[in-house]
Amino acid sequence: METFAGEVFVIGAGAMAEAFVKGVIEKRAIAPERVVVTGRTLGGRAAGLREKYGVRVAGTEAAAGARMVFLAVKPADTAEALAQVRPYLHGQPLVSFAAGVTMDWMAEIIEHRSPVVRTMPNIPVGVLEGATAVSFPEAGLAERDRKDILFLLGQLGEVVEIPERLMNAATAFSGSGPGFVCYFLEAMEAAAIRLGFDPELARALLLQTVVGTARTLREWGLAPDELRRRVTSPGGTTQAGVAVMEAGRLADVVDAALQAAARRSEEMGRAYAVVRD
Ligand SMILES: NC(=O)c1ccc[n+]([C@@H]2O[C@H](COP(=O)([O-])OP(=O)(O)OC[C@H]3O[C@@H](n4cnc5c(N)ncnc54)[C@H](OP(=O)(O)O)[C@@H]3O)[C@@H](O)[C@H]2O)c1
Question: Where along this sequence does the record place binding of NADP(+) (predicted)?
Answer without folding.
Answer: 11-16, 72-75
